[in-house]
C-alpha cells in the first residue's frame, strides 16, 4: 500500500453478501449495456458525419436500439442503486429482485428480436401511429413484438416497485410517513434521504406504468385491428407521461448513490432537512405535471395545459436538483474528503444533472420550443443529464461497490480515463447543442453536407467518450472480480 | 330464537335476498335495458352477492384454511378466468337472448367471481394484490378506449351510443378506483376497511344482542 492509497470508504451498515452480489451483477449488466449502446451511438453520429454509410432503415433500427437500450439500462441501473441502499433500512425480497431482473431480460430479448429480426425502427417512444404505419419498412408484427417487449419491461418494474412499496409500508406504516410528511408538517423524525426519494420514485413510477400499460395495450390492439383507431393526441399524452416519468425516475434513483456514498468520504451524514423533504414532495407532483412540455407543438392541446407545462418545467428544476447540488457543495466544502474515481464520478454526475437542466429549461419555453423542437438541441440537453449526469453516477456506484473497503488510490491512468469521459462527453453534448442552435434536425439518418462538420467533430468526441466508458467498465469488473475472489 | 339464527346467517340471507332481487324479471329488465347499467351495476352487484356469502364466517373458515387455496392463488385465478369470459362483449350479449347464458351469468358472477374473490383476496401477497389493481386500472382505460373507438356496434342488443356512454362511465370509474386503491398504501388504512369493520361489528353486535334475547 503506497502513500497515496486511501481506503475506499466503507460503512458497516452497508449491505453485503447476496444483496451486494445481486446489486453488483445488475449494475455491471447495466453498465455493459451503456458501453455497447454508446458504441451504437458513436456509429450513428459517424453516419451523420458522413464517415460511414449504412442504409437509412438500418440507421433507424440502430437509433431505436440505442434509445430503448439506454433508457432500459438507465432504469435497471437506477433500480439496482435504489435496491442496494434500501436494503440498509428495509427488508426487500431477493426473489422479487430476481423476478424483476428475469422479466426485464426476457423483455429485452423480445425487443432486440423485434428490432434486429423484425426490422422495427419506430424509435423507443413508439409514438402512435408510426409503429403501425411504417410505410412498408416493417410489418405490424414487429411493432407488436416491440410493444410486448416494453410491456414485459413494464411488468418487471411494476413487480420491483411493488416490493419496494411493500417494504416501505411495512417499516414505516405508510408511504405518507416514508416520504416524510409527518416530519414536514409535524415534529416526527424524518426518514433517511434514500427512503424519502424511494417513496417518491415508487409512487410516480407505479402511476406511470399504469398509463404506459394502457397506451401499449391500445397500440397492440390497434395493430391487430386497425379499424379501432387511437386518438393520436391521447396517445401522445399517455406515452410522454409514461416516458417522462420513467426516465426522470431513473435519475432520481441513481442520485441515491450520491446521498449514500458521498457521506462516507466527507464524514458528514446526508440529512433529510425540511427543505429536502419539501423538495421531494414537490418533485412527486411536478414530475407528473410537466410532461406537456413534450407537446408544445401540438396545437390541439389545451393552452392552459401547455402554459402549466412551461411554468412547471421551470419550477421542477429547482426542488431536488438545486437542493441536491447546493447540499453537495456544502457537504464537500472543507470536508477533507480524499478524491478518488468513485467520488469524482458521483460529483460529475450531479454536475451533469444540474447542467443538463439549463438547456432543458430553455427548450421548455414555448416560444423557444417552436423553433428548437425536433432539432439536435433536444438530444443535446438529455445527453447532458443522462450521459454526464445519470450514467456518471451509475459508474460511480459501480466503481465504489466493487472497491469498498479496499485500498486504492486515484491513479494517473484513472484520472486520464475520467478526463476522457468528461472531455468526450462535454464535447459530444456541446456538438449536439451547437447543431441544434443551428437548426440541424434530430433523427435524420442523412445530414446535408453543410451540417456534417458538427457530426464529424461530435464523432471524435464520441470516440473519446466510449474509450473513457470502456475504462470505467473495466474498473467496475476488476473491482467486482477482486471482491469475488476475496469473499 | 328464530331471530338469533337470522343474526348468524345475516350474510347468507342478505346475499340471497340481493340475488333474488337481482334476478327478478322487473329488476333484470331495468338493469339490462342499457349497456352501462348492465355492465357497471348488475354485474358488480351479482359479484357482491358472492362476496356477501363469503363473509359468512363458516364458509370463510372452510375455504381460507384450504390447502389448495394458498395465498389465494387458486381462487384469484378462478375469478380472473370467469371475468375473462364475461369481458368478451359477445358473452354478455348472449346472456340477453339465450336463457342458458343468462342462468350462467346469474350463478357464475356470485359463485365464480364474488365468492372466490372474497375468500382469496385477503390471503394474497401484497405484490399480487398490487399487480392486479394496477392491471385493473390499465384494463379499465383500455376498455374505455375500446368501447369508444369501436367503429361498429359491438352488441346486438345495445346501440353505439350505449358504448360511448359506457366508455365515459369507465373513465370516471378509473379515477374513483385509482383514489381508492392509492388510499391505503399512502395513508396506511383502507377506506373499505372502515366499512367492513363497521359491518362486521354490526353483525357481531346483532348476534350478541339476539343471543341475549333468546
Ligand atoms: C458515447 C455516447 C453517446 C453517443 C455518441 C450518442 C449518440 C446518439 C445519437 C447520434 C443519437 C441520435 C440523434 C438524432 O439524430 O436524433 C442519439 C439519440 C439518443 N440517445 Fe444517445 N448517445 C450516447 C449516449 C447516450 C446515453 C448515455 C443515453 C442515455 C442513458 C442516450 C440516450 C439516447 C436517447 C434516449 C436517444 C433518442 C433516440 C430517439 O430519438 O428516439 N445516449 N444518441
Secondary-structure blueprint of this entry?
The complex is a heterodimer of chains A (487) and B (214).
Chain A: E1 6-7, H1 17-48, H2 56-86, H3 94-117, H4 140-172, H5 175-178, H6 181-185, H7 193-224, H8 232-254, H9 256-266, H10 274-289, H11 303-332, H12 341-363, H13 366-372, H14 377-403, E2 407-408, H15 412-437, H16 449-486
Antiparallel strand pairs in A: 1-2
Chain B: H1 2-8, H2 10-23, H3 25-31, H4 35-55, H5 57-64, H6 73-87, H7 89-97, H8 99-120, H9 126-149, H10 160-187, H11 191-213
Bound molecules: protoporphyrin IX containing FE.
Fold and architecture overview:
The complex is a heterodimer of chains A (487) and B (214). With 487 residues, chain A is mainly α. Chain A has one domain: Cytochrome C Oxidase, Chain A (Up-down Bundle), CATH 1.20.210. Helices cover 74% and strands 1% of the residues of chain A. Chain A has 16 helices and 2 strands. In chain A, helix 1 packs parallel to helix 3 (94-117). The model of chain A has no long low-confidence stretch (mean pLDDT 91). By secondary structure, chain B is mainly alpha-helical. Chain B has 2 domains: 1-124; 132-214, no CATH class. Helices cover 83% and strands 0% of the residues of chain B. Chain B has helices spanning 2-8, 10-23, 25-31, 35-55, 57-64, 73-87, 89-97, 99-120, 126-149, 160-187, 191-213. In chain B, helix 1 (2-8) runs antiparallel to helix 11 (191-213), helix 2 runs antiparallel to helix 4 and helix 6 runs antiparallel to helix 8. The N and C termini of chain B lie close together (5 Å). The mean pLDDT of chain B is 88. The A-B interface holds A 96, 158-159, 162-163, 165-166, 169, 173-177, 203, 206, 209-211, 213-214, 217-218, 221-222, 227-231, 234 and B 126-127, 130-131, 134-135, 137-139, 141-142, 145-146, 149-152, 178, 185-189. The structure holds protoporphyrin IX containing FE (HEM). The site of protoporphyrin IX containing FE has 28 residues of chain A, from helix 1, helix 2, helix 14 and helix 16.
Amino acid at each position: 500500500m503506497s502513500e497515496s492509497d486511501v481506503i475506499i470508504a466503507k460503512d458497516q451498515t452497508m449491505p453485503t453478501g447476496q444483496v451486494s452480489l445481486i446489486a453488483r451483477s445488475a449494475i455491471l449488466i447495466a453498465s455493459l449495456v451503456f458501453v455497447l449502446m454508446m458504441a451504437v451511438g458513436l456509429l450513428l453520429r459517424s453516419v451523420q458525419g458522413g464517415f460511414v454509410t449504412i442504409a437509412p432503415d438500418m440507421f433507424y433500427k440502430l437509433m431505436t436500439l440505442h434509445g430503448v437500450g439506454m433508457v432500459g439500462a438507465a432504469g435497471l441501473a437506477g433500480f439496482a442503486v435504489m435496491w442496494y441502499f434500501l436494503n440498509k433500512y428495509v427488508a426487500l425480497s431477493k426473489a422479487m429482485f430476481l423476478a424483476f431482473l428475469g422479466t426485464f431480460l426476457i423483455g429485452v430479448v423480445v425487443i432486440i428480436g423485434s428490432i434486429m429480426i423484425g426490422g422495427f425502427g419506430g424509435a423507443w417512444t413508439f409514438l402512435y401511429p408510426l409503429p403501425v404505419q411504417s410505410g412498408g419498412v416493417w410489418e405490424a408484427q414487429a411493432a407488436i413484438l416491440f410493444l410486448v417487449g416494453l410491456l414485459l419491461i413494464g411488468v418487471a418494474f411494476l413487480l420491483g416497485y411493488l416490493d419496494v412499496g411493500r417494504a416501505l409500508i411495512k417499516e414505516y406504516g405508510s408511504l405518507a410517513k416514508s416520504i416524510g410528511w409527518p416530519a414536514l408538517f409535524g415534529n416526527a423524525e424524518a426518514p433517511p434521504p434514500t427512503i424519502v426519494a424511494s417513496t417518491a420514485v415508487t409512487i410516480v413510477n407505479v402511476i406511470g406504468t399504469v398509463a404506459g400499460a394502457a397506451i401499449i395495450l391500445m397500440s397492440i390492439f390497434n395493430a391487430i385491428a386497425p379499424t379501432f383507431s387511437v386518438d393520436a393526441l391521447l396517445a401522445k399524452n399517455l406515452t410522454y407521461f409514461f416516458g417522462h416519468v420513467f426516465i426522470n425516475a431513473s435519475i432520481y434513483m441513481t442520485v441515491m448513490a450520491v446521498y449514500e456514498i458521498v457521506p462516507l468520504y466527507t464524514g458528514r451524514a446526508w440529512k433529510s432537512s425540511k427543505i429536502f423533504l419539501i423538495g421531494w414532495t414537490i418533485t412527486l407532483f411536478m414530475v407528473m405535471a410537466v410532461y406537456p412540455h413534450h407537446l408544445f407543438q401540438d396545437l390541439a392541446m389545451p393552452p392552459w395545459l401547455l402554459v402549466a407545462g412551461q411554468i412547471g418545467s421551470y419550477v421542477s428544476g429547482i426542488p431536488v436538483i438545486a437542493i441536491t447540488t447546493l447540499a453537495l457543495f456544502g457537504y464537500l466544502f472543507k470536508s477533507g474528503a480524499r478524491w478518488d474515481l468513485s467520488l469524482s464520478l458521483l460529483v460529475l454526475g450531479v454536475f451533469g444533472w444540474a447542467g443538463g437542466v439549463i438547456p432543458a429549461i430553455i427548450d421548455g419555453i414555448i416560444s423557444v420550443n417552436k423553433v428548437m423542437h425536433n432539432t439536435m438541441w433536444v438530444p443535446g440537453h438529455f445527453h447532458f443529464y443522462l450521459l454526464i449526469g445519470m450514467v456518471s453516477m451509475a459508474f460511480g456506484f459501480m466503481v465504489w461497490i466493487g472497491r469498498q473497503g479496499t485500498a486504492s488510490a486515484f491513479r494517473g491512468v484513472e484520472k486520464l480515463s475520467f478526463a476522457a469521459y468528461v472531455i468526450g462527453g462535454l464535447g459530444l453534448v456541446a456538438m449536439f447543442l451547437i447543431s441544434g442552435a443551428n437548426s440541424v434536425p434530430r433523427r435524420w439518418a442523412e445530414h446535408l453536407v453543410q451540417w456534417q462538420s458538427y457530426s464529424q467533430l461530435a464523432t471524435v468526441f464520441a470516440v473519446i467518450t466510449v474509450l473513457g466508458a470502456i475504462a470505467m467498465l473495466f474498473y467496475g469488473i476488476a473491482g467486482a472480480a477482486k471482491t469475488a475472489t476475496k469473499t | 330464537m328464530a331471530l338469533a339464527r337470522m343474526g348468524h346467517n345475516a350474510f347468507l340471507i342478505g346475499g340471497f335476498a340481493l340475488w333474488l332481487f337481482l334476478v327478478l324479471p322487473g329488476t333484470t329488465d331495468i338493469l339490462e335495458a342499457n349497456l352501462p347499467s348492465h355492465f357497471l351495476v348488475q354485474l358488480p352487484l351479482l359479484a357482491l352477492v358472492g362476496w356477501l356469502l363469503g363473509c359468512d364466517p363458516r364458509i370463510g373458515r372452510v375455504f381460507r384454511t384450504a390447502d389448495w387455496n394458498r395465498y389465494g392463488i387458486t381462487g384469484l385465478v378462478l375469478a380472473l378466468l370467469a371475468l375473462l369470459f364475461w369481458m368478451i362483449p359477445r358473452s354478455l350479449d348472449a346472456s340477453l337472448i339465450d336463457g342458458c347464458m343468462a342462468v350462467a351469468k346469474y350463478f357464475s358472477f356470485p359463485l365464480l367471481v364474488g365468492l372466490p374473490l372474497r375468500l382469496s383476496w385477503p390471503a394474497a401477497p401484497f405484490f399480487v394484490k398490487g399487480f392486479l389493481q394496477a392491471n385493473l386500472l390499465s384494463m379499465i382505460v383500455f376498455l374505455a378506449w375500446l368501447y369508444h373507438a369501436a367503429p361498429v356496434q359491438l352488441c346486438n342488443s345495445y346501440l353505439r351510443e350505449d358504448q360511448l356512454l359506457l366508455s365515459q362511465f369507465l373513465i370516471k370509474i378509473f379515477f374513483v378506483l385509482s383514489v381508492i386503491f392509492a388510499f391505503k398504501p399512502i395513508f396506511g388504512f383502507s377506506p373499505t376497511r372502515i366499512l367492513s369493520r363497521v359491518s362486521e361489528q354490526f353483525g357481531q353486535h346483532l348476534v350478541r344482542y339476539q343471543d341475549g334475547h333468546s
